[in-house]
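Readers of this paper often ask what the protein records in our data store actually look like. This encoding replaces a full spatial description with a residue-level series of whole-number codes. For reference, a complete record is included directly beneath this paragraph.
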Amino acid sequence: MRQEWMFILFCFCVAIFDPAGAWATQVHAEPEGLYSHQLGHGFFIVSMGVFIYWLRGRRLVRHKGWRYLQYSALLFVLWNVDAIVVHHLENQDDLFMKFSEGTLHAFLQPYPGREWVTVMFYICKMDHVLCVPAIIFLYLALRQMIRSPHEFSPRDVERP
């Protein structure tokens, strides 16, 4: 319990004394940075998909902790698909004009007839709607596994 409070205090101090470093904006260098970043998203999708398949194949999702972990993995898959779509749309020059890109005051102006793409981009850009619940489910899964470790012993795992 003491270590948790120390970690919370550390995070609070970092947030107070270095607020300029807390911006959540990232622009990828052309073109290699974006390619490797997109490959990372793809690898994450495949990894989480295999993990879900593995959990279901061994029937571990019968237990609440593993089920939460499956939900977390599924939301991480959706988050990565969303991120790939957003990164792809960001690099299309004929969809909308970007102003003050990479800042907290950035805005978009759609080209005529492309307004729907701009709205879709804006909605997809709110990826925290998928990522935060994924992290919460991950936390719930780990908490459940710590609280009742007897439910997660290797004896219970059924091999396919």
In short: The chain has one domain: 31-156. Residues 64-90 form the longest helix (27 residues). Residues 31-156 form one domain. The chain is about 60% helix and 5% strand.
